[in-house]
Backbone:
């Protein structure tokens, strides 16, 4: 089919099972290229190298949690504008019905949160709205 | 009689004089005469009274105590001096005395000349040796004693109240601590369970995609996938409930109006009401006092009460939501009512009253509706945490939540929150 450049997603999560499944699912859509980081301290370096269009970021991780990673991203001139979506098992708060506003908030640089477990189609919808719109 | 005749006038006069002297001596030595000085020396009230209801004699202590002169005391019926509330008792005591019985430590109140009231304690009798129809009585002014007693009683009550408050605070602390540790536990468990659930979900999505791609999915395959999907959702719903329960320990309190919060809850519930064909009516009082609440949490409580009602009315019905201000009545402790000890009868409060004409709650279940994981809903439909969470939230607000069956059928839920005082001076206790 058409050779549109794929959009890049950096997936930062210490759960290897989760990241490998998510990578398979997202790449199956053939619209995204996914790079996985399981050790959060490496996230900034990988982000600089990979230049993602969006970062999916876990919150509770050993060594450096999602909040710290996000702070470092915001402090870096070259990375601060990359939208971040938190994907966490911690919170009950979620954009259950309102994926559109989730995407908009991420685009506006606001903190948005998706709660695990989450369905692939939902992640794809949020990403499509954010990146494809 | 010859000798008598012989007595001279002089001798006769001498003998009469001697007899008179003897008589006088005898009179002076009667008990009455001997006791007379005590009457005037007494520190206590001493008197005699007739069966006609008048004092016959009163000692000087009467004037000292009541301010009336002896003459004033004797000129009016005794009952005139008695406090109106004690007149009936006093009359009864008189009857008792007339029957020849003793009056022991009888207490009544007298109204003094300066209109002050004094408590008097009496001993009285109509003794056999005394003059007929005369009541003898001694009494003492126990007003000071009474006042001290009252003050003591008041202090005891205050002490009891503050002790009670302390105890309820302690209970609340324990409850909060329990919630807090349960909260930490829930959050930990939730996190650990949600990650594997997330992987199951993605794995399931993957399987679905594979099956659809191969076009090899038959009905059984789809049924298996669907059941797995529902199971993941069920587990997730329970975990979310636990997280909610855990999150009840922290409040962000602000002074707010309650009506907009209720309105917002109704907006959220509208969809379900329309689907179940339930008519929602509102009656909001204006100018309600504000309440100190965590808006999101109280919204959650109200929404929980409303959706509980709606879910029970799948065949249609009505739901009435009313807000009003008032005093807290004596709160029921039965029928599932839970009291968060701080809000007490007489306090100014804001009420959110939700009534429906649904099927109500059966008597054997109503006592348990606030228990965590208790649910009346079909398996998989409710977590049984909604009201447990709501109760936790309301108790943290020091409010009340009550759920009762209406006598006419249906359920009445009430959320009672303490009205914020416009300007509340700190209560300082002296002593």
Residues:
């Amino acid at each position: 089919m058409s050779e549109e450049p794929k959009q890049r997603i950096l997936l930062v999560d210490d759960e290897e099972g989760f990241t490998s499944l998510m990578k398979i699912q997202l790449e199956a859509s053939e619209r995204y290229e996914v790079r996985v980081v399981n050790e959060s301290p490496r996230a900034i370096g990988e982000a600089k190298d990979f230049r993602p269009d969006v970062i999916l970021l876990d919150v509770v991780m050993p060594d450096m949690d999602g909040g710290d990673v996000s702070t470092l991203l915001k402090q870096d001139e070259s990375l601060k504008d990359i939208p971040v979506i938190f994907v966490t098992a911690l919170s009950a708060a979620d954009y259950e019905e309102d994926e559109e506003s989730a995407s908009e908030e991420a685009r506006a640089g606001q903190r948005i949160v998706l709660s695990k477990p989450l369905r692939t189609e939902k992640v794809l919808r949020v990403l499509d709205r954010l990146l494809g719109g | 009689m010859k000798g008598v005749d012989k007595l001279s006038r002089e001798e006769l006069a001498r003998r009469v004089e001697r007899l008179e002297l003897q008589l006088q001596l005898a009179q002076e030595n009667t008990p009455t005469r001997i006791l007379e000085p005590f009457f005037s020396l007494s520190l206590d009230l001493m008197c005699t009274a007739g069966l006609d209801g008048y004092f016959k004699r009163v000692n000087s202590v009467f004037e000292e105590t009541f301010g009336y002169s002896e003459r004033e005391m004797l000129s009016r019926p005794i009952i005139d001096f008695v406090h109106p509330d004690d007149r009936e008792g006093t009359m009864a005591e008189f009857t008792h005395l007339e029957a020849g019985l003793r009056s022991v430590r009888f207490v009544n109140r007298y109204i003094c000349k300066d209109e002050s009231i004094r408590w008097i304690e009496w001993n009285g009798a109509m003794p056999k040796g005394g003059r007929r129809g005369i009541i003898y009585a001694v009494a003492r002014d126990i007003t000071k004693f009474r006042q001290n007693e009252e003050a003591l009683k008041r202090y005891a009550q205050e002490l009891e109240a503050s002790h009670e408050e302390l105890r309820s605070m302690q209970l609340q602390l324990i409850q909060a601590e329990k919630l807090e540790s349960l909260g930490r536990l829930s959050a930990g468990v939730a996190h650990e369970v949600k990650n594997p659930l997330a992987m199951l979900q993605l794995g399931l999505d993957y399987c679905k995609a594979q099956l659809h791609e191969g076009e090899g999915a038959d009905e059984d395959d789809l049924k298996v996938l669907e059941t797995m999907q529902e199971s993941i959702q069920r587990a997730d719903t329970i975990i979310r409930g636990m997280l909610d329960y855990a999150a009840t320990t922290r409040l962000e309190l602000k002074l707010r109006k309650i009506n907009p919060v209720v309105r917002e809850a109704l907006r959220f519930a509208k969809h379900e009401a329309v689907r179940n064909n339930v008519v929602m009516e509102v009656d909001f009082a204006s100018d309600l006092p504000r309440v100190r609440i965590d808006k999101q949490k109280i919204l959650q409580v109200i929404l929980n009460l409303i959706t509980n009602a709606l879910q029970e009315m799948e065949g249609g019905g009505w739901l009435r939501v009313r807000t009003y201000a008032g005093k807290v009545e004596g709160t029921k402790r039965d029928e599932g009512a839970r009291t968060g000890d701080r809000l007490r009868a007489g306090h100014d409060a804001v009420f959110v009253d939700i009534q429906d004409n649904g099927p109500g709650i059966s008597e054997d279940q109503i006592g348990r509706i606030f228990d965590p994981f208790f649910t009346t809903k079909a398996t998989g439909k409710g977590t049984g945490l909604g009201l447990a969470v709501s109760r936790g939230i309301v108790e943290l607000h020091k409010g009340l939540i009550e759920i009762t069956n209406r006598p006419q059928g249906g359920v009445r839920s009430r959320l009672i929150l303490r009205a914020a005082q416009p300007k509340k001076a700190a209560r300082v206790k002296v002593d």
Notes: Chain B touches chain A at residues 187, 190-195, 197-203, 205-206, 209, 232, 236, 239-240, 243-244, 247 (CB under 8 Å).
